[in-house]
Structures are given as structure tokens and as C-alpha cells.
Design brief:
The chain has 257 residues and is mainly α. It has two domains: 74 residues, Orthogonal Bundle (Arc Repressor Mutant, subunit A), CATH 1.10.10.10; 161 residues, GntR ligand-binding domain-like (Four Helix Bundle (Hemerythrin (Met), subunit A)). The protein contains 13 helices and two strands; from the N terminus they run H-H-H-E-E-H-H-H-H-H-H-H-H-H-H. A two-stranded antiparallel sheet has the order 1-2. The radius of gyration is 21 Å and the shape is elongated. It starts with a helix and ends in a 13-residue tail after the last helix.
Length: 257
Amino acid sequence: MRKKLNIATKKLEREILAGTFKPGDRLPAERALSLRYGVSRSILREGIRHLSSMGLVRTEAQSGTYVTDYRKEASLDFLLYLLDNNEPLDPELFRAINELREILESGCASRAAARSDPERVRALRSALAALRAEEGDPEGLAAKDYEFHALFVEQTDNLALQLLFHAFRSVYLYYARCFYAEPESASATFSQLECFLDRVEARDESGAAAALSLALAYGRDRVYRALSLDSNAPAISTARSNLKEVPHEDHGFPVRD
């Protein structure tokens, strides 16, 4: 039953996000939808209740169920639901989530640098060594990449930032595996993260943020190319330009295309 519920809910959600059912539309009658998705009416009702709790639809007594404008009315639960995803995202949503991640992590990089101490730097270098040890294994690289980023987010000493970062886990790992499936991605990432650690160790807040932004832009652009997506976000060249503007004597950042 749970599997059928998940399938029916996902199918209806996709049709709403794709615009098959537009904001303000009344959904077809329960009988028609249950036949459409191959589930019982009781399972369909539970799926609709789930989507209603996230703000995608609303049910009006004696009238029916209507599609809401999820961009204005969906809850944080809906974002978390989308992030708990082990399959490709809609391109528009994928771009938006990438932008959110870049904003989140660049801020965390700056905050981690401000709180840096030798013990924390050693922990980060150990995490990077563990990442390097997985070279050649996209699954292992993705897992250790996540652990490295989670560690410096933890070093912000901000619980809300940690919880928000971990909400990305499923979608993060899915696309990290895509990224590391290209063998040349790993060596460039290792160099970029070494430079990031140098800035953290120096307690250079702006340099750490710029270095991490470069690494994230590199990863984003490679995944976009691998998936044949056009990026509407600033290209890696823009991240490189921002890095050059950071005011310290020697960045030591090897920039790779």
C-alpha cells in the first residue's frame, strides 16, 4: 500500500509541477484520478492529503480539490520533500537548489574560517585525505565529499545551518555521483579544496568563501554539462573573477577549467 501511495503521490506532484494541472485548476474527480494512477480511492485521498499538507493543493468542502500556486503557498515541508530525492530533479528546481546551496555553503565557509583552530583544520585535512583515498570510486567519492562539506558546516557552530545542509543529503549524493563519474573531476576538486583549507587555516574569511565558491561553480558547471543543462547561474569564470578580487597577498589557488 505504501509503495502505491508513494507512486500515486509522485505522479500527481509531477503533473502539478509540470503544469498539467495549473494553479487554480480543480483536480478531476477521485474516481477519474484513481483510474489514472492505478490506485484505490482511499490511497488517492491519502496522497492528496499529503500534497495538501505541503501546500500544493487545497480541498474545499462540497467543491473539490484545487491546485495552489506552490511558488507562493507551498511549505518548507515541500522543499524538504523535494530534497529527499534519489532521482533527477526538474531543471528549474535543480538550478534553484544549486543556487541555494552555493549561498549557504559560501557563508558557512566564511564562518568556519573565522572559527578555525589547529584541531579543526586537522580534522578537515583528514576528511580531505579520506576523500582522496576514494579516487576512482564515484560512490565512495560522493559519500566522502558529503562528509567533508558537512564537517566544515558543522564547524560554523550553527545548528540551523547544519540542519539545513543535511536536508540536501539525498539530492547532494545523487548529483555528486554524477559529478565523480567523470574521472577528471576528482583531481581538480582535490586541488580546489586544498586551497579552501589553506584559507580556512589562515582564518581568511573572504578567501575561504571565494575558494569554496570556485569549487562549487566548477562542480555545478560540470554536472550541468553532463546532464545537458544550460546554466543560468554565473559561470565558473565569474567565480574565478570574484576570487581574484579577494584582498590578500597570495591566494595560491590553481584555477582549472
